[in-house]
């Protein structure tokens, strides 16, 4: 194809025609240029809008929509200095507010907590509002920019204090159990320069310290490396529990309970054990709090109830009417279906309800009364007995217990163990026995290790005892062997099954 110069006419074409065509061409070109310019400016505006949108999306991705605080991702982009610390604060109440008043009220509660958090004035921040994030639910992170471990701990206590006061949501009063995990600068951070990686490392360790508060003790904990090992162990327990029940690595041991008057075995307490293939025999003081924190406690309670009622049935079939006591967690009482489950298991094993005692810790029943009371009433209506365990360690008075449908009080073993040496403990035990009887309760002493203590308890009129003096908790088959070693109450042929005498 030959190119035609624009300015020159093609040979043989008349001059005026060339002019007209040239004019038209200029017009077309001008139009095209103008179009191009408009398009370019449009594109520029569009690009600016896109950039703003991208920026907003990036910001939104770093913000929590409900509270306007940073979210976890956003918090990681906050750079900590060489002495920066991180506190993770957990209010552990949102679930309860949601369950009681619905999710909308749960959001109100989270906003109230946020207001307190951003309104806090910590001395270590020289009165500045803290940089805070909502990690999830009612768990928040706070940056403490320039502190040592000691100052971080104090700041965390101030934060907790501020968040602890009761919350009024729709006229309902909630008191959250606030716990704080703190991670401050330490040798384990040595190689990390200030930046997101260091913030992430602090946040992870503050989370580990937070998990450690769930073992009880101080509600504000600073990270130390041994917590990491414990956290890893906890995680193994959490992940391994279901399979352990399936493999029957989890089992129930029975410890006899004897009447102090007639010296007969009247029942047993069922105590959970976990025979872990790698970690060895685990005791409930280690795994029960872990299962309580994850909600898996419901499965443990179901398992222990099932095993205990099966054993009670076996003993009934052999002519022994032994009651079984099963430990129940506060978490079980938060499940409205729990009494139905108990009723179904009693029916399935054909065990009369009065042979089942459910033991609850004193702190458990007093802290969650609103939630627990209707469930306790329904359990009581089934005919089960209810016992307050570890009595004397909590805050509640016996008079307060009268308002609960309980039948038994178990004196905490620390007092019973102390009876041999501490006069004060003898006085406490005597007072509990007397007041318990005044309220019409059966009084149980646990932790009876010495014959002299047993005699003293019998002399005080304490009803029932349990302890190493009689027997340690035994696996089911060992317990049956132990029972067989006892002198049997002869009983009339065909008489109702009775308890067995104990020669000890
Ligand atoms: P607890 O209910 O107070 O149970 C009594 C504990 O005292 C048992 O510890 C028992 O082995 C121990 N003990 C009994 N007699 C004596 C004695 O003479 N001297 C001493 N020093 N100790 C004695 P264990 O089996 O380690 O259980 C610890 C706690 O774990 C129990 O305390 C109970 O609160 C909880 N637990 C056990 N099994 C279960 C369960 O199935 N579910 C739940 N939720 N908690 C359980
Ligand atoms: Ca108990
Ligand atoms: Ca106890």
UniProtKB/TrEMBL annotation:
The chain crosses the membrane at residues 20-39. This is Bifunctional diguanylate cyclase/phosphodiesterase. PANTHER family: CYCLIC DI-GMP PHOSPHODIESTERASE PDEF, OXYGEN SENSOR PROTEIN DOSP. SMART domains: EAL, GGDEF. Residues 82-225 form the GGDEF domain. InterPro entries: Cyclic-di-GMP_PDE-like, EAL_dom, EAL_sf, GGDEF_dom, Nucleotide_cyclase, Rev_trsase/Diguanyl_cyclase. Residues 234-487 form the EAL domain. The lineage of its organism: Bacteria, Bacillati, Actinomycetota, Actinomycetes, Pseudonocardiales. Keywords: Membrane, Transmembrane, Transmembrane helix. It comes from the Bacteria. PROSITE patterns: EAL (PS50883), GGDEF (PS50887). It comes from Actinomycetospora lemnae.
């Amino acid at each position: 194809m030959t190119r035609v110069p624009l300015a020159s006419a093609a040979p043989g074409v008349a001059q005026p025609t060339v002019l007209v065509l040239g004019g038209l061409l200029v017009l077309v070109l001008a139009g095209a240029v103008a179009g191009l310019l408009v398009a370019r400016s449009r594109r520029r505006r569009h690009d600016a809008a896109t950039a703003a949108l991208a920026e907003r999306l990036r910001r939104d991705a770093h913000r929590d929509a409900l509270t306007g605080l940073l979210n976890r991702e956003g918090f990681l982009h906050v750079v900590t200095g060489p002495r920066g610390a991180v506190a993770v604060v957990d209010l552990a109440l949102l679930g309860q507010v949601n369950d009681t008043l619905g999710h909308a009220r749960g959001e109100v509660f989270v906003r109230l907590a946020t207001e307190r958090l951003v309104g806090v004035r910590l001395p270590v921040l020289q009165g500045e509002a803290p940089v805070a994030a909502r990690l999830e639910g009612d768990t928040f992170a706070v940056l403490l920019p320039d502190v040592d471990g000691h100052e971080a701990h104090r700041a965390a206590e101030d934060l907790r204090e501020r968040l602890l006061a009761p919350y009024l949501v729709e006229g309902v009063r909630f008191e959250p159990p606030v716990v704080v995990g703190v991670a401050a600068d330490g040798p384990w951070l040595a190689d990390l320069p200030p930046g997101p990686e260091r913030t992430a490392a602090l946040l992870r360790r503050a989370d580990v310290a937070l998990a450690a508060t769930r073992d009880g003790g101080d509600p504000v904990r600073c990270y130390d490396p041994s917590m990491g090992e414990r956290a890893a162990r906890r995680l193994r327990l959490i992940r391994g529990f279901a399979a352990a029940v399936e493999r029957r690595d989890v089992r129930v041991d029975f410890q006899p309970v004897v009447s102090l008057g007639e010296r007969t075995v009247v029942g047993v307490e069922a105590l959970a054990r976990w025979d872990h293939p790698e970690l060895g025999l685990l005791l409930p003081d280690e795994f029960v709090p872990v299962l309580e924190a994850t909600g898996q406690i419901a499965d443990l309670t179901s398992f222990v109830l099932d095993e205990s009622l099966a054993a009670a049935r076996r003993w009934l079939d052999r002519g022994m009417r032994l009651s079984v006591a099963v430990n129940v967690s506060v978490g079980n009482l938060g499940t409205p279906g729990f009494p139905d489950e108990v009723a179904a298991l009693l029916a399935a094993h054909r065990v009369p309800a009065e042979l089942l005692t459910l033991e609850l810790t004193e702190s458990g029943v007093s802290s969650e009364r609103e939630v627990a009371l209707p469930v306790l009433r329904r359990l009581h209506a089934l005919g089960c007995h209810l016992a307050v365990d570890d009595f004397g360690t909590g805050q509640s008075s016996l008079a307060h217990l009268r308002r609960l449908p309980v039948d038994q009080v178990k004196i905490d073993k620390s007092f019973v163990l102390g009876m041999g040496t501490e006069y004060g403990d003898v006085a406490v035990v005597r007072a509990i026995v007397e007041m318990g009887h005044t309220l019409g309760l059966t009084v149980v002493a646990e932790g009876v290790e010495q014959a002299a203590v047993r005699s003293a308890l019998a002399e005080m009129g304490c009803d029932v005892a349990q302890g190493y003096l009689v027997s340690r908790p035994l696996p089911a088959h060992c317990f049956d062997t132990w029972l067989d070693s006892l002198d049997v109450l002869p009983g009339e042929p065909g008489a109702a099954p009775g308890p067995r005498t104990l020669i000890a």
